[in-house]
Write a structure and sequence with these properties.
The complex is a heterodimer of chains A (about 210) and B (about 100). Chain A has about 210 residues and is mostly helical. Chain A is built from eight helices and no strands. In chain A, helix 3 packs parallel to helix 8 and helix 7 packs antiparallel against helix 8. Chain A is elongated, with a radius of gyration of 21 Å. Chain B has one domain. Chain B has four helices and no strands. In chain B, helix 1 packs antiparallel against helix 2 and helix 2 packs antiparallel against helix 3. The chains are: A mainly alpha (about 210), B mainly alpha (about 100). At the A-B interface, helix 3, helix 5 and helix 8 of A face helix 1, helix 2, helix 3 and helix 4 of B.
């Protein structure tokens, strides 16, 4: 038995069997990448719906963005990009063993998430005052479907960031071992990527 | 990415400024420029650059697993390309996607 397992390990080095991220040169773990790729695919389907609706209703998609609040859309883009930047700085701080500094960067990202949601709330209110809603026409149907879906991601993403901060406070992460934090960071960047795609499609391009 | 922590921070700070500037630039274009091919192409390019910066440097995929890196990078070639294709050939795409 012993010699058998020895032969096996010689014939097939451990790295071929490893599902850990380090051996495969994957940041975070494979589970979070399954989630991220699923989410990116989900958003891709929404973007395809947008493109198809746009070619079939060119006038509505030409006029649609002009009635949206570009300032709110731009502000939220700046906020999302900044939150992602804060998350990167948090990861760097953890690697430098500056855990309290890392938690402060992450609180900055959470604040960005909350600010995003507040702006979205006022943007939707503003739309309602302009007489825009999900049934105004297909452009606003797509707009509400995509942006509300994204808003939910920002909501639970922010909650996830708070969880990671709590984990920092419990002393679970070290400069060497902080995979959970990396996973959350990657997920947050995915939310950012979705928004930087949504912004030109719905607010800018006519 | 540079191994030196100080340089790494400097790079990330610079990239954040680039992302912010590109966003302000596209917002400015949206307000100012007439919608035309050039402005749509610039929007698509801006999206491609922003996506690539986040994928390569924020998600740190630049030197990571090849398949993962290629998939994530491809997203920010395909969507900008679709923006341009949909702008150039709306009628043809509408015809191909109409159920008779």
């Amino acid at each position: 038995m012993n010699s058998f397992s020895q032969t096996m390990s010689e014939a097939m080095p451990e790295k071929h069997f490893s599902f850990t991220s380090k051996a495969r040169n994957v940041p975070g773990n494979l589970a979070i990448w399954a989630a991220i790729l699923s989410e990116m695919s989900e958003f891709a389907v929404m973007f395809i719906v947008y493109f198809l609706a746009k070619v079939h209703h060119p006038e509505l998609f030409h006029e649609g963005p002009t009635r949206l609040n570009t300032t709110a859309g731009t502000a939220n883009t700046l906020i999302m990009l900044t939150s992602s930047f804060f998350v990167v700085r948090a990861v760097m701080a953890v690697r430098a063993n500056q855990l309290i500094t890392a938690s402060r960067w992450l609180w900055g990202a959470v604040l960005c998430g909350i600010l995003y949601l507040i702006i979205k709330y006022f943007e939707y209110q503003w739309n309602t005052m302009q007489g825009l809603n999900t049934e105004t026409n297909i452009f606003y149907g797509v707009y509400y479907y995509v942006t509300f879906n994204h808003l939910l991601h920002v909501g639970w993403g922010s909650a996830g960031l708070v969880w990671v901060i709590y984990r920092i406070y419990t002393g679970i992460y070290t400069c060497k071992q902080h995979e959970g934090l990396i996973n959350m960071a990657l997920y947050w960047h995915m939310i950012d990527l979705a928004w930087i795609t949504i912004f030109p499609l719905l607010y800018v391009i006519r | 990415m540079s191994k030196e922590p100080g340089n790494e921070i400097k790079l990330i700070d610079t990239l954040w400024l680039v992302l912010i500037s590109l966003t302000l630039f596209s917002a400015w274009m949206a307000e100012r420029a007439d919608p035309g091919f050039i402005s749509v192409a610039i929007m698509a390019a801006v999206l491609a650059i922003k996506g690539r910066i986040i994928v390569d440097h924020f998600m740190e995929l630049k030197h990571a697993h090849k398949l993962l890196r290629s998939l994530m990078r491809a997203y920010f070639y395909v969507i900008p390309a679709l923006i341009i294709i949909v702008y150039l050939f709306p009628e043809q795409i509408a015809r191909w996607t109409t159920l008779s």
